[in-house]
Design goal:
The protein is an alpha/beta fold and 175 residues long. The protein contains eight helices and eight strands, in the order H-E-E-E-H-E-H-E-H-E-H-E-H-E-H-H. The protein starts with a helix and ends with a helix.
């Protein structure tokens, strides 16, 4: 699986991420205010996203829920393509690919649950966190060694950057 997945990762130009269960651990925290919803994001995932962007690989988010916290995190990371409140993620990804005039083979998608399957089947590189549901794992080209919200996105970023030959040079910039 990894050799074929690495081959697919070589041509990735756009990484599309789900949020709950991928960028977060899937836990939703509600406060007493009906508008207060909190999510926990992994800082290492954020750096991985920034490293992709530094190498000319764009990042987008497609999520079934709508959240101000996700909007804020996307803005902090410079992610301009944020699609919230879309249950049909496959259709949403089709629209992104068409708008950007991309070949689906140049898109990586990371999801963790059944609503992600349509997008995963469309993307050239389908990936998921290790704690994804079984049906998603069965459709994945590459499974991150970490759980959602615990560095799975960073692992995907590093996997793509390694496949494209950027990772050693990027690592050296921090020495």
């Amino acid at each position: 699986m990894t050799g074929r997945a690495a081959q697919k990762a070589e041509s990735v130009k756009l990484v599309v991420l789900d949020v709950d269960g991928v960028m977060t651990d899937g836990t939703l925290l509600y406060g007493t205010d009906t508008h207060l919803e909190m999510k926990s994001f992994n800082i290492k995932d954020g750096l991985g996203i920034k490293l992709l962007q530094r190498c000319g690989i764009d990042v987008a988010i497609i999520t079934g829920r709508t959240s101000a916290a996700v909007e804020r995190r996307a803005a902090e990371l410079g992610i301009t393509e944020l699609i919230q409140g879309r249950e049909d993620k496959g259709k949403a990804l089709e629209e992104v690919i068409a708008t950007r005039k991309l070949d689906a083979a140049s898109v990586a998608y990371m999801g963790d649950d059944l609503p992600d399957l349509g997008a995963m089947r469309l993307a050239g590189l389908a990936s998921c966190p290790i704690d994804a549901v079984e049906a998603v794992k069965n459709d994945a080209d590459w499974i991150a060694p970490l759980a959602g919200g615990d560095g799975a996105v960073r692992a995907l970023c590093d996997f793509i950057l390694q496949a494209q030959g950027y990772l050693p040079e990027l690592n050296d910039t921090f020495r």
